[in-house]
Amino acid sequence: MAIITELFYLPPIEYFVAIQKEEKILLDTGENYQKQTYRNRSQIRLANKVETLSIPVIGGNKKVKTGLLKIDHQQKWMNVHLRGIQSAYGKAPFFEFYFPYIEQVYQKNIDLLADFNSELLTVCLKLLQLDIKLEILGETDPDSQLNDIRGKISAKTSFEERNIYQPAPYSQLFGLDFVPNLSIIDLLFCVGPESKNILAKSQKIH
């Protein structure tokens, strides 16, 4: 069982609900990069708002293949993101256990957005205890039998419009109202090993 997806930055919970039962993810890095998408954006919950973390890229306006797109390290985005994550989740029950694995990826100063996202995805799958292999999608047309969800999980439309994710609430750090479909790190830091069960409960019944 394999699924074809784009490569997102610390993807939303919906993404992991979609891939949780697969054996392999084929990552499409040959597509043209699109702005204002999950490819370089991720959402976390701060004390009084949902914050969007955005990675600056070089030449994202042109038709650049996602796999060739470089992160703009001239901008001091990395400290902003790490501080934001620490501010949001520093007091979460599983922060001290999981954050070092994620921080380690940032400290590598990776040039290509696809490589950076891929390393973070690998860490997230490990922390979720999901045994799923990652491969880059080849240039030949993929097998039409494969589950292809490219273009489905969009930051510009609500998950409610799609047939993937039905939020199973869990204890978040701030506020009384549950905020669904944040970055997977919100789930990991808040409930730790229980994350996998929450993903299973969040599957929309077709």
TrEMBL record:
InterPro entries linked to this entry: WbqC
Superkingdom in the source lineage: Bacteria
Record Pfam families: WbqC (PF08889)
Protein name (Swiss-Prot/TrEMBL): WbqC family protein
